[in-house]
Amino acid sequence: MKRFFFDLKEGIIISLKAIAANKMRAILTTLGIIIGIVAVTTMSTAIVGLREAFLSSLSSLGNDVLYVDKFEWFGSRNWRQYRNRKDITYDQYVKLREMLPADAYEAMAPNKRTFGKTVKYKQRSVQATLIYGTTEEFIKTSGAIPENGRFMNEFEVKAGRRVCIIGQDIAKNLFPNMDPLNKYIRINNVPLKVIGVLEKQGSAFFGSFSMDGQIIMPLKVFERLFGQRHGRMLIDIKVADVNKMDDVKELVTAVMRTVRKVPPGKPNDFAVNRQDVFTEVYDKTVGVVALAGIVITALSLFVGAIGIMNIMFVSVTERTKEIGIRKAIGARTWSILLQFLSEAAIICMIGGVIGLIISFPLSLIIDRFLPTAMPLDIVFLSLVISALVGIISGFLPAYKASRLNPVEALRYE
Amino acid sequence: MNNIIKLEHIAKIYEVGAEKVHALKDVSLTIDENEYVAIMGPSGSGKSTLMNIIGCLDTPTKGTYIFTGVNVSEMDDNELAEIRNKEIGFVFQTFNLLPRSNALHNVELPLIYAGIPKNERQEKAIQALKSVGLEDRIYHKPNELSGGQRQRVAIARALVTNPSIILADEPTGNLDTKTGEDIMALFNELHEKGHTIILVTHEEYIAEHAERIIRLRDGLIERDEPVENRVIPNHTLSEG
């Protein structure tokens, strides 16, 4: 083992000298590897970034929350069929709550949404991206935590008090340099008292809208403002134990069938959705495209590897005499093999490092669109890959060199 | 005296296409410690083949070769490499130095393959270069040295592992007469110090520096006899 490291060290020193003696050729050879590494790392950074962006955009949906909806997210039927289903009602929510075992869920919040409504404070006005009408338990199902002030309480919800909790963007735009708490904002000319400001949430669904532009209010107030039939109702259920998601989903489905009087044998006229259907759909579609992208860019690395192999064959032929001399004075097969393998690996790793130096700023550019920098494991992996490419593509030439007959090699001119 | 080399009925057959070439037919000989032997013969006589076999660069097709008491005719490539590394010092007609490495590194090379650490091997290499009178040339590359100096580097490289034999293949072939004479003086000196030297040459005059001449013809030993009027170079090294 000690001898192996000695041989390896000497092999590396010899190959560094050989590379230094042929700098131009080494650089040209590494070009293939550089391009390959740049392509692969940039591609995988983009792919990782894309997925991360997608996942973070889902963060407004909890991974321990079931969403009872008349629509099935990513359902296979067409939209018209879902639209014709009966709406989920507040009564159904009450019944579901009565019938579902209390230890199955932690919180349950019926809610309606509306988009793009104008909100005013004195002369200022702003578009609220999203307005929720819901109950006090929404704080648990949505994770929308107030940073200042407080969330609405049970009494305010039941009584239909005109209170609201606003997102950071609304607070900033309506109340610059002011404390929004206890001020009255107006929606459809109805005043609502601000009792809380939410923590910063970031954007959701690929930045399509900012979760910081949301307003939460009691369901009754929502219905009064926008009308009974405005917005479809969802019931968000935060399960007590995330490991029992499937069981609770079964339970909720059974209860909802009873509540909605679905005859036995008929399909559900509602859906119990989960956040992970998004991930599944993503991996099935974008994931496959991403994989193809990696494979295609990996081809450029393969072309680089062929370049290495080619140049190593040239190098071996060119140095036949040197190999003969080394063997005559006692280099074993193994020493020669190691020498040429390390030469190929070093050329490739130089290419890998240069490739990383080039692709790092590229990843910063990607970072401006997707929330990711170049992951460290990709850096490490690409160095390992480039060394492996060197060893694999250098193997045949190195093997050829190590097997040379010393007598013939010495005679070679 | 001890046998260093013992060849018994050595034959070497090369297959060139469908044809078989008998480079060596049946050669038996022994060489003792501290002998100074010249192997002579016209081209095609098999002297290069014999040298390759003695030098463990090649293995015989038939016969046994006992080298320092060990049967090397059955050894594999790596075992032979180790024998070459430790027991044989090669000196070639074309010097065969690594062109990009300086004299020191060239002399160090066999010690690298012997697994000797850097400090020790530099010390030994400098010692060997001193012994051939090149202490002031150790950082010169081969193309900065004269032919005679290159051959001395090669001799230093052959000596550095303190081998059992020094095998010189036409060592003066690429040198002018004067320089050639200097190199032969060096061999003579090494012989006097107790080294065993085998010289392969086709020049009668060079061969006469040895104590014994083995003449080959058509793959067989034609004659094997001591030299009566040895050429003793009256030179000493360190100058030239």
Question: What's the layout of helices and strands?
Answer:
The complex is a heterodimer of chains A (413) and B (240).
Chain A (H helix, E strand, L loop, with lengths): L1 H20 L1 H35 L7 E5 L9 H5 L6 H10 L5 E17 L2 E11 L3 H5 L3 E4 L4 H6 L3 E4 L1 H7 L9 E4 L2 E9 L4 E2 L4 E2 L3 E5 H8 L7 E6 L5 H15 L11 E4 L1 H43 L1 H9 L4 H37 L6 H27 L3 H6 L2
Parallel strand pairs in A: 3-10, 5-7
Antiparallel strand pairs in A: 1-11, 1-12, 2-3, 2-6, 2-11, 4-7, 5-10, 6-7, 8-9
Helix pairs in contact in A: 1-12, 2-10, 2-12, 2-13, 4-9, 10-12, 10-13, 12-13
Chain B lengths: L2 E14 L2 E14 L3 E5 L6 H8 L7 E6 L2 E2 L5 H11 E4 L11 H11 L4 H14 L15 H13 L5 E5 L7 H16 L3 E6 L2 H4 L4 E6 L2 E7 L14
Helix pairs in contact in B: 3-4, 3-5, 4-5, 5-6
Model description:
The complex is a heterodimer of chains A (413) and B (240). Chain A is α+β, with helices and mostly antiparallel strands. Chain A contains 14 helices and twelve strands. In chain A, strand 6 and strand 7 form a beta hairpin. Chain A is elongated, with a radius of gyration of 33 Å. Chain A starts with a helix and ends with a helix. The mean pLDDT of chain A is 87. Chain B has 240 residues and is α/β, with parallel strands linked by helices. A six-stranded mixed beta sheet of chain B has the order 6-7-8-3-9-10, sandwiched between helices. Chain B has a four-stranded antiparallel beta sheet with strand order 2-1-4-5, with helices on one face. In chain B, a hairpin with a 2-residue loop joins strand 9 and strand 10. In chain B, helix 3 packs parallel to helix 5 and helix 5 runs parallel beside helix 6. The chains are: A alpha+beta (413), B alpha/beta (240).
Essential attributes:
heterodimer; A: 413 residues; alpha+beta; 6-stranded mixed β-barrel; two-stranded antiparallel ribbon; 12 strands; B: alpha/beta; 6-stranded mixed β-sheet; 10 strands
